[in-house]
Amino acid sequence: MTQTQDFGFGTQIRKSPYFDATVRWGATGFSVYNHMYIPRDFGDPVQNFWNLINDAILCDVAVERQVEITGPDAARFAQLLTPRDLSKMAVGQCKYVLITNAQGGILNDPIMLRLAENHFWISLADSDILLWAQGVAVHSGMDVTIREPDVSPLQLQGPKSGQVMRALFGDAIMDLRYYWLRQVELDGIPLIVSRTGWSSELGYELYLQDSSRGDELWEKIMAVGGPIGLKPGHTSSIRRIEGGMLSYHADADINTNPYELGLDRLVNLDTEVDFIGKAALRRIRDEGPARRQVGLVIEGEPLSGPNTTFWPVTLDGRTVGKVTSAIHSPRLGQNIALAMLVVDAAHLGASVQVQTRTGVMAATIVEQPFYDPKKSIAAA
Amino acid sequence: MTQTQDFGFGTQIRKSPYFDATVRWGATGFSVYNHMYIPRDFGDPVQNFWNLINDAILCDVAVERQVEITGPDAARFAQLLTPRDLSKMAVGQCKYVLITNAQGGILNDPIMLRLAENHFWISLADSDILLWAQGVAVHSGMDVTIREPDVSPLQLQGPKSGQVMRALFGDAIMDLRYYWLRQVELDGIPLIVSRTGWSSELGYELYLQDSSRGDELWEKIMAVGGPIGLKPGHTSSIRRIEGGMLSYHADADINTNPYELGLDRLVNLDTEVDFIGKAALRRIRDEGPARRQVGLVIEGEPLSGPNTTFWPVTLDGRTVGKVTSAIHSPRLGQNIALAMLVVDAAHLGASVQVQTRTGVMAATIVEQPFYDPKKSIAAA
To answer: Which three-class secondary structure state does DSSP give residue B97?
Structure first.
């Protein structure tokens, strides 16, 4: 694809309110997510990784479209959509949740935000949960309104993101807790900010509520952040794989259940609360999942980029699963990967073979996450 | 994006079973549709257009994912999903339908295929109708199974496509009627073929039912079709705009209703049959839609490519709508466009102004489709 403002094949894929700004600031490659372009390359993904872990980066994640649920039954409906227990979710709180279908398959792994008693946003990974939620509502008998509001998030991530936030919003913002949100303004631009992200680093998301002001918002943040060390960037596959974070469609899909991912903590079967998939998930829990996600360290030369197909994993010539995400971590000096294996092959420390396009590589099953700053600090 | 087999940023976007074949046969640019790569450039979109209208092209449209509905209530459930009357839809028939939400907004404009009494496929435009349909089913009380089967369509389109089909499947295929389907095999490869497409030309779709055989199928068709004049290609924006065919997200979306598009024939309000959106669509019909899609001929220099943003349309300085799809037709020697205007500005023959990125262009509202072979033949 080209780098010009005429980027694209028509209007079938939307442009973010930050699109022109990201091109101006050096975006050289885009992918598509939720029917919208997302910058995925500013010339050097490894430099982007160092910028993220040493300083801070600003990322256009307007593709995280919001599903807004309002109405008298909004809270009850939000709970219907997820196996996670929301009964203690306060107004102003965010939660990482799974959305499951009647078979317990994962449809999305969004952040849910509670803006008011009966006012929720679901900040989406890449699938049309707007259609899922509207479809569920049709015969639900609940009084809810479900729509996509004019909201376009940015991610501000990295160890210096706190300083940038302080410079933008003053000292008051420093007491914003992990996975909480606040309504703020920046020179009259209406925002929700939350201490969330997709980097395992200190980070914030800024939800712009007026798409006509995207360019202005981007420039204001870069102007304030630049002297602190803020760089334009994009979500880092290296950092999120180091952190064992999921990429929907790659590491999880409609045929994956929470137990296969070890995400038992996001499923609450021990209440009277009803949610879609409860019976199926109870059955899966009782029987035990057939597959299990593991971390792999893959030997050999550094991978030149991410895997672009699912690489088969074999054990003594038998196919036992697939690598879903693989990349070279320059910090760890290792090729690291997430893989989904049959349970009887998913043992810590075991050796397996990975069938890449260019040949077979040996790999070892290891603990996740690959990098945990808390452990590193403790060891230091 | 690159042209190598390592194309892409990871496994988050799927590759079609024909991906390697299309790269081998010259695909130079890809877009994303239904979470999957689709070739959209073989080097020269204008040459692709001439190949389509003079000879025939083979297009990878595996992105047309299928939603399969089976079970005792499948026929009743299929009708629930669309305002089009399906009561006379025979087994073996296809229908172009709209899928609407409770507000009458369009969620997709797929082809529906009836494979058996209670066995339907919905061959999708770009949105997750799998989630919509599963969501609707949750509380519907109907006994249906809804899933995405292993089906990957190809389009074989153009005046010589009939000859290619005859060479592939023998004389028997020649009596396949417009919008009917048939189960066939090609050297043991299981297929459904239908006389449908997205080109307004004679054309067929071939639904591969075993994704492991995509490369083999592509090569067999090209080997047989090549001597007849078949070229590798991609869906043609020029031809589909000439034909006034919709591109979902560009020309229609969740906030567009069928009456705005003049698609009254796809809405049947005069039966006892229940479908989602019926009450809303009755209200819209009775009140009359607020907007109306029109065709535009835009004056000035030939457009160098499609519009990549929605261009505002103004009348005496007042914004009255937007251009949704615009392109230069080399056959007509005109810039042609689809636009959505407020009803009081949507008069045939009226002059309006189009605000492009590079300046204002004068335009005239004209009848659609821009090119109709039947009229041309009659006039000849």
So the answer is: coil
pTM of the model: 0.96
For residue A126, the chain B residue with the least C-alpha distance is B35
Q: Give me the DSSP letters along B227-245.
A: GGTEEEE---HHHHHHTT-
Instruction: Verify that B212 and B318 share a domain, yes or no.
Output: no
CATH code at A118?
A: 3.30.70.1400
Is A128's Cβ below 8 Å from some Cβ in B? Answer: yes
A133, A146 contact by CB (below 8 A): yes
Place of tokens 């029917």: A35
CB A207 within 8 A of CB A192: yes
Same domain, B295 and B379: yes
Question: Are B308 and A12 in contact (CB < 8 Å)?
Answer: no
What letter represents residue A59's amino acid? C
- Give the length of chain A: 380
Q: A379 to chain B nearest CA, in Å?
A: 33
Question: Which pLDDT value is given to residue B379?
Answer: 43
Phi, psi of A171 (to 5 degrees): -60, -30
Q: Are residues A355 and A222 in the same domain?
A: no
Domain count, chain B: 2
Q: Does B254 touch chain A (CB under 8 A)?
A: yes
Task: Find the domain containing A334 and state its range.
Answer: 290-380
Nearest CB to A11: which of B127, B148, B324? B324
CA dihedral A268, A273, A279, A282 (to 10 degrees): 20
Residues A295 and A374 in one domain: yes
- State the residue for tokens 């009966």: A118
The amino acid that residue B77 corresponds to is: F
Residue A121 has pLDDT above 50, yes or no: yes
ipTM: 0.96
CB–CB contact A7 B40 (8 Å): no
Contacts of A5 in chain B (CB under 8 A): 308, 357
Residue B115 included in any domain = no
Q: In terms of Cα–Cα distance, which of B260, B258, B285, B291 is closest to B82?
A: B258
Strands (DSSP E) along B124-276, which ranges? Answer: 145-147, 152-157, 181-186, 189-194, 203-208, 230-233
- Residues B79-101 have a mean pLDDT of 98
